[in-house]
Amino acid sequence: MAGRTTSPGQTVTSRVLSILAVFESSPSARTLSEICAESGLPQSTVHRLLGELEEWGAVQRDARGRYQIGLRLWELGQHAGRQLRDVVRPYLQDLFGLTQETAHFAIRDGADVLYIDRVYGSRRVPQASRVGGRLPMHATAVGRAILAFEEGWVRDAVLGAALVQRTPFTKADPEQLRKELDKVRGQGFAVASEEVRLGSCSLAVPVFQADGRIFGGLGIVLPTSRAHQLERNLPILLGTAERIQAGIAHLPKAALQPAARARKPQQP
């Protein structure tokens, strides 16, 4: 099925996905005009499809009439990667219990990192990541911990693309980052400070599959005022990473290949 849209030949399914993709970068509520502008679809089409999505529960409206992701879609999304999250969550909780610092686990999603789970307490730390969110690999500690151990062509693809500079401190020079990744491979951990969000710093280590291939990254986040305390948590991070590696070794192969990992970074 194809209708009159700004993209001739676009199917109904692709139009619905274009609307839902508007909410991918941010959970903020959107107006009808904002959704039209970001999806590239005409208002009549967006209004009609949003009505159907709202009736099903995929989207809902706030008190100001703006649209946001609905609870039914959130509920459905909880089934994605559930086996992996069920394995990782107890170790993240242990990591938080031992350090009292925000802890997270992420995998590669193209040229970004996708956050699978996160545990945090009441300590105030500027937050840049969220469960289900993604950030640039080159600017995060978990991203570098993963990228340093990826195949050469993956590193070349990521560093050969346009590198976003999120803050004045983001390292965005490819040669500087290559040296940084060499250092990470040598020492076994990565550090990033105020490269995505001012006021926070992070320490991360790689998590490998049973066959030695890189799978994800495990990290903690602290306020930059306590950056000098980062590396004292390294032994706990390394020990937790080993426990996660042992845990995922018992998962079926399909659970270790989330759909996100199928998205390859474009090669230069």
TrEMBL record:
<dbReference type="Pfam" id="PF09339">
    <property type="entry name" value="HTH_IclR"/>
</dbReference>
<protein>
    <submittedName>
        <fullName>IclR family transcriptional regulator</fullName>
    </submittedName>
</protein>
<dbReference type="InterPro" id="IPR036390">
    <property type="entry name" value="WH_DNA-bd_sf"/>
</dbReference>
<dbReference type="InterPro" id="IPR036388">
    <property type="entry name" value="WH-like_DNA-bd_sf"/>
</dbReference>
<feature type="domain" description="IclR-ED">
    <location>
        <begin position="72"/>
        <end position="250"/>
    </location>
</feature>
<keyword id="KW-0805">Transcription regulation</keyword>
<dbReference type="InterPro" id="IPR050707">
    <property type="entry name" value="HTH_MetabolicPath_Reg"/>
</dbReference>
<keyword id="KW-0238">DNA-binding</keyword>
<dbReference type="Pfam" id="PF01614">
    <property type="entry name" value="IclR_C"/>
</dbReference>
<dbReference type="InterPro" id="IPR029016">
    <property type="entry name" value="GAF-like_dom_sf"/>
</dbReference>
<dbReference type="InterPro" id="IPR005471">
    <property type="entry name" value="Tscrpt_reg_IclR_N"/>
</dbReference>
<keyword id="KW-0804">Transcription</keyword>
<feature type="domain" description="HTH iclR-type">
    <location>
        <begin position="10"/>
        <end position="71"/>
    </location>
</feature>
<dbReference type="InterPro" id="IPR014757">
    <property type="entry name" value="Tscrpt_reg_IclR_C"/>
</dbReference>
